[in-house]
Design a protein that fits this description.
Shape: globular
Strand order of the largest sheet: 5-8-9-10-11
Radius of gyration: 16 Å
CATH topology: Trna Endonuclease, Chain: A, domain 1
Distance between the termini: 31 Å
Length: 194
């Protein structure tokens, strides 16, 4: 889905077929693309067919959870059952999903993206990312969520007070605490833009 939005005085455009973000008419990488500067191509060596199937299933799970958040419609996916279980056990509410953000450094846009979930739990707001990988890469997830945490503050003026990974894969269902680390995240941003 292509879209255009005005965020914090900047025009963000997204073109889905090319997975292309523009801020004020200038192409910027996605937050995931920016992260490749640290992690490279995480899935190098895995067959294209396996990656394609995994991406399709991941998209199916993300879309099912987003549809549930927006409409209340449940599916029979095991990952959906896992999500509902985690929501019941950890008593979190999804405030919104898939909102676009712009990441800035010294007032210049350096990346853009869409976060998975904004949650409310124990009277606090935080961010969460859904992963359907065979194993949960906490280092990758930590950087990703911390980048989104900074971008959400810069885009909407919202402060995420906690970060969580939601690991769902068939019968796997984990709600993982991710540490907030502003200093390491800013160090990565400075290195990435060189």
């Amino acid at each position: 889905m292509n879209y255009s939005a005005t965020l914090n005085g900047h025009t963000l455009e997204y073109f889905e077929d090319e997975h292309l973000y523009l801020v004020d008419g200038v192409i910027v990488p996605s937050i995931t693309q920016l992260m490749k500067k640290r992690f490279g191509d995480k899935y190098l060596g895995i067959s294209e067919e396996v990656l394609k199937r995994a991406a399709q299933r991941g998209t199916e799970v993300h879309e099912a959870i987003e549809r549930y958040v927006v409409t209340g419609e449940e599916t029979d996916l095991p990952e959906m059952r896992g999500f509902l279980f985690l929501q019941r056990i950890y008593d979190f509410e999804v405030i919104n999903t898939e909102r676009p953000v712009i990441l800035f450094y010294k007032d210049s846009p350096i990346a853009a993206g869409r976060y998975d979930l904004m949650l409310e739990m124990d009277g606090k707001q935080g961010g969460a990312d859904i992963k359907r990988t065979a194993t949960l890469d906490k280092e990758y997830l930590s950087l990703q969520l911390n980048l989104y945490r900074i971008a959400i503050r810069q885009t909407y003026g919202i402060e995420w007070e906690f970060l969580r990974g939601i690991h769902l894969r068939e019968e796997i269902r984990k709600f993982v605490k991710i540490p907030i680390n502003e200093e390491l995240t800013m160090d990565f941003i400075k290195e990435a833009i060189k």
